[in-house]
Amino acid sequence: MSDDFNMSMRKFLKQVGVTSQQAIEEAMRNAGQDATAGKTFAAKVVLTVDGLDMEHIVEGQITGPAE
């Protein structure tokens, strides 16, 4: 793969990671500490790329901040 491809992919994935973390943190704050403290939430990311026949799913767990 070309250097341009690798750089564009890394830039996209960095943006996904940073913006996803910000969105999760905001959702946790909006829900309030009582609703999130120490609780585990199922998380799922579905990645698709227009023009390619692909769907990539990542599932995991996120634990709310301790009380």
Please describe the topology of this protein:
Elements: H1 3-31, H2 33-36, E1 40-48, E2 55-63
Antiparallel strand pairs: 1-2
Q: Explain this structure to me?
A:
The structure is a single chain. The protein is an alpha+beta fold and 67 residues long. The chain has one domain. The chain has helices spanning 3-31, 33-36, and strands at 40-48, 55-63. A two-stranded antiparallel ribbon has the order 1-2. Strand 1 (40-48) and strand 2 form a beta hairpin. The chain is elongated, with a radius of gyration of 16 Å. The N and C termini lie far apart (46 Å). The model has no long low-confidence stretch (mean pLDDT 95).
Q: Can you describe this structure in just a few lines?
A:
The chain has a two-stranded antiparallel ribbon with strand order 1-2.
Profile the largest sheet.
2 strands, antiparallel
Structural category: alpha+beta
Count of the domains: 1
Instruction: Quote the distance from N terminus to C terminus.
Output: 46 Å
Order of helices and strands: HHEE
Strand content: 25-35%
Q: Give a count of the beta strands, DSSP E runs of length 2 or more.
A: 2
- CA-atom Rg in angstroms: 16 Å
Low-confidence stretches: none
InterPro entries: DUF6494
Name its key features.
67 residues, alpha+beta, two-stranded antiparallel ribbon, 2 helices
